[in-house]
Amino acid sequence: MIVYSKMEYKTLNNGLQMPMVGLGVYDIPERETQRVVEDAISVGYRSIDTAAMYYNERGVGNAVRACGVSREELFITTKICDSCYSRDETMRSVDHSMRQLGLDYVDLMLIHWPVGNPAVMWHALEELYGQGLFKAIGVSNFYPNTFPMIVKGARVMPVVNQCETHVLYQQRKMMEYLQPYNVALEAWSPLAEGKHGIFKNPVLKRVGEKYGKTAAQIALKFLIQNGIIIIPKTTHKERMIENIDLFDFMLADDDLSDISRLDTGRNVTGWPSDALKYNPESL
Q1: pLDDT tens for residues 48-60?
Q2: What does each C-alpha distance from 168 to 40, 78, 191, 252, 263 come to in angstroms?
């Protein structure tokens, strides 16, 4: 069994260290989730990202208990249900996720989308963070038209903003926007869901040949080397190994420059983004 012990970490704005590569479990059926997460942990993953909306938190929790790796070595992220308008609704959503996971704490709790009353939800998460239920709190899919809902009046700054990010949609404006807040960017769908021929992209393939890596590995390394945390999803162990085998090389400046020109400035998944100028109330 190949186990990758090499890992880089991002020091978040509260001092917590987060692995730069984790496993995303979006759209994995709960009946498969435990096996998938155990496979990931067995080959070296220590960060797992789930959500209430994925309906597989129970499988993640089962894997955490069964994997043989101490809880303290793992970094578990989940996201509360959307559309909470009150403190009590938020608390119930958190309680639901914690019961599904069966864990005493989670490392990172996120607000999944900017719907409901994000300010009220955030203050509830701040309260629970202060009680030690979470090691960190953050947001997902908040753009400049909604991010101020969180930071205005916040006692605790989000540690991350998780958004669609990949070589075709590099989120440069988002990175610039988050920098003054010292909020890290975390990429969901870092391989663009395999769309637009990303795995056969001639630039990524050419650069990959130079380093003995696949186009997918080059696409992921580009994000990491730009300081972006990634959570690629796969259910196949061989792909898990490929997606984490990223720390034995560095892309040269000319390669980074060539890849940067792949940016289209638009998302590819169809989920709301800054490019769509979405109205949070319409989600």
Answers
A1: 999 999 999 999 9
A2: 26, 26, 9, 19, 4
Backbone φ, ψ for residue 214 (5° rounding): -80, 165
In the predicted model, residues of the chain with pLDDT beneath 70 are 1-5, 272-283
Tokens found for residue 124: 């509830």
Q: Say if CB 124 and CB 88 are below 8 A apart.
A: no
Q: What's the pLDDT score for residue 279?
A: 44
pTM beyond 0.85: the answer is yes
Per-residue DSSP letter, 68: S
Structural domains in the chain, CATH included, are: 15-196+227-236 (3.20.20.100)
Given a contact cutoff of 8 angstroms between Cβ atoms, the answer to whether 245 and 238 are in contact is no
What is the CB-side half-sphere exposure of residue 141 using CA atoms within 13 A? 22
Quickly tell me which residue has 């720390």 as its tokens. Answer: 247
Determine what percent of the chain falls in helix, strand and coil, rounding each to the nearest 5. 40, 15, 45
Residue type (1 letter), 79 = K
Question: How far are the Cα atoms of 40, 189, 216 from residue 45, in angstroms, in the given order?
Answer: 5, 17, 17
Task: Assess contact for 38 and 67: CB atoms under 8 A.
Answer: yes
The CA distance from 81 to 21, in Å, is: 24
Q: Which residues are catalytic?
A: 54
Residue 64 burial class via C-beta count within 10 angstroms: exposed 0-12, middle 13-18, buried 19 and up: buried
Residue 185's contacts (CB-CB under 8 Å, 6 or more residues apart) are 160, 161, 163, 165, 171, 174, 175, 178, 227, 228, 229
Helix, strand or coil for residue 134? strand
